[in-house]
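Please go through the sequence and C-alpha cells given here and tell me how the chain folds. Record follows.
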Amino acid sequence: IEFDLMSLVSLVWRRKGTVAIFGLGFAILAMALVYSLTPRYQAQTVVMLDQTEEQFIDVESVVSGINTDFFAILAEAQVLKSRKLAGRVVDKLELTQHPYFNPDLIPVGEPNFVVQGVLGAFELLKGAVRGAVTDREVASDEMLSPEYFARQRAIDRLLDAQKVVSIDNTYVYEVTIETEDPFLSTRIANAFADLYITEQLETKFEATQAATEWLSDRVAELRIELEQSEAAV
C-alpha cells in the first residue's frame, strides 16, 4: 500500500502541469458561474394569530378526540399562503408594475429577457391549469384582459417567492420573502403582515356583525312570541 501511494504521488507530481491547468480551468468556470448568478435577498416577518375572541360554541366539546389546535395551525398557514392575500399584496404594492413580477416589462435588449419570458409563460400556464382562483367574481372579458393575466402571473411569482412556517407548531408564523431586491423583499414581507392583521380584524368585525344581527332578529322573534302569549292569556 505504501508503494502504491508513493507511485500515485509521483505520478501526480509528474503531471502537475496538467493538474494545475485543469484546476485553474475549473476554478475560473466556478467563479464565472457564481458571478453570473443574480443575488437573492430574504426578508422575514413574524405574525401571530389572535385567539382571544369569545366562542359561542365549544367545538372541542362537540368533536372529541380531535386536536383542533393542530388543524387550526395548518389552516391559518394556508390563509397566509392563499391567493386572496397574495392578490391584496400585489394590488397594494402594485407589483404588476415591477419587472420581477411582470416579465413583460423587461426590455427586449436585456440578456435575461428570453429566460424571463420562458419563465413567465410557464408560470402563466401553471396558473391557468390550477384555475387561477381570485377573491372576487370577474367578467369573461376582464379575465381575458392583459391586466388580468399580469395580475395572476404576479400572484404566482409572489407565492413562489414566499415561505410560511409555524414556529414550534404554535400560532406564531414566520413569513419569508425572497427576491432580487432587498428593499422589495422587506416591503412585501411587511405588507403580508399588515394585510394579514387587517384581514383578521375584518373577519372579527364580520363575525361580530353577523352575531349582532342574529341576536337582534332573535330578540324580535321572542318579543313577538311574548306578545302573542300575553294576548292568548
